[in-house]
């Protein structure tokens, strides 16, 4: 029998009442609140969580997620920067910082953060994917291909990487390789942009 979500909240409320200074209990309570879209209440708990446990980097990342819900990119960036300040080798924080910089069009800063993310966690799939995109946007085609190939080594059915490789090989002047990855992306259900397919057809 599935437990009622409200029961989870009550469980964490009891834990907090028993030990108000436990940052992890407040963090878990915030996760449960976010699952019910109670973002303001969750944020209040996360702020208390880092007050109790200043090195709880995950709490800053969740606060960044709440900022994204509000379309507050700067707020999200600051939260993740705080996460990496309290835990300097926290890959998720750097991955999120890189993502935000990409959204803001600051490719150099994105690359710096994402390179740290994959260095601290070589299996961080999303950070590798974003890094491949950043390299592509910077015109570093060979580096983009290298990173996206690493993504496929970790996740062979990750269609986004095939799509990115199709674009990279197209820019590299290898339409045959581009077509190969385009077809693989589509076989996995990914909707490759029509303009990419048209360009491949023109150059084949």
Describe this structure in words.
- The structure is a single chain.
- The protein is mostly helical.
- The chain has helices spanning 5-18, 23-35, 39-52, 57-69, 73-86, 91-104, 107-120, 125-138, 141-154, 159-172, 175-187, 194-203.
- Helix 8 (125-138) packs antiparallel against helix 9.
> CA-to-CA gap between the ends?
57 Å
- The geometry reads as elongated
What fraction strand? Answer: under 5%
Structural class: mainly alpha
Tally of alpha and pi helices: 12
Mean pLDDT: 94
Secondary structure blueprint with pairings:
Blueprint: H1 5-18, H2 23-35, H3 39-52, H4 57-69, H5 73-86, H6 91-104, H7 107-120, H8 125-138, H9 141-154, H10 159-172, H11 175-187, H12 194-203
Helix pairs in contact: 1-2, 2-3, 3-4, 4-5, 5-6, 6-7, 6-8, 7-8, 8-9, 8-10, 9-10, 10-11, 11-12
Structure characteristics:
204 residues; 12 helices; elongated
Please sum up the structure shown.
With 204 residues, the protein is an all-alpha fold. 79% of the residues lie in helices and 0% in strands.
């Amino acid at each position: 029998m599935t437990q009622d979500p409200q029961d989870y909240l009550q469980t964490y409320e009891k834990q907090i009442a028993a030990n108000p200074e436990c940052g992890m209990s407040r963090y878990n309570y915030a996760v449960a609140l976010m699952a019910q879209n109670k973002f303001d209440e969750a944020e209040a708990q996360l702020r208390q969580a880092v007050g109790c446990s200043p090195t709880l980097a995950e709490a800053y990342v969740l606060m960044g997620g709440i900022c994204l819900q509000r379309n507050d990119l700067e707020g999200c960036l600051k939260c993740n920067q705080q996460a990496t300040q309290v835990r300097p080798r926290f890959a998720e924080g750097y991955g999120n910082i890189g993502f935000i910089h990409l959204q803001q069009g600051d490719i150099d800063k994105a690359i710096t953060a994402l390179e740290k993310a994959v260095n601290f966690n070589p299996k961080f799939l999303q950070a590798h994917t974003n890094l491949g995109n950043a390299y592509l946007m910077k015109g570093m085609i060979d580096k983009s291909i290298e990173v996206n190939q690493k993504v496929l080594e970790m996740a062979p059915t990750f269609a986004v990487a095939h799509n990115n490789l199709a674009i990279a090989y197209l820019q590299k002047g290898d339409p045959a390789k581009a077509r190969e990855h385009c077809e693989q992306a589509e076989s996995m259900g990914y909707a490759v942009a029509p303009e990419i397919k048209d360009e491949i057809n023109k150059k084949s």
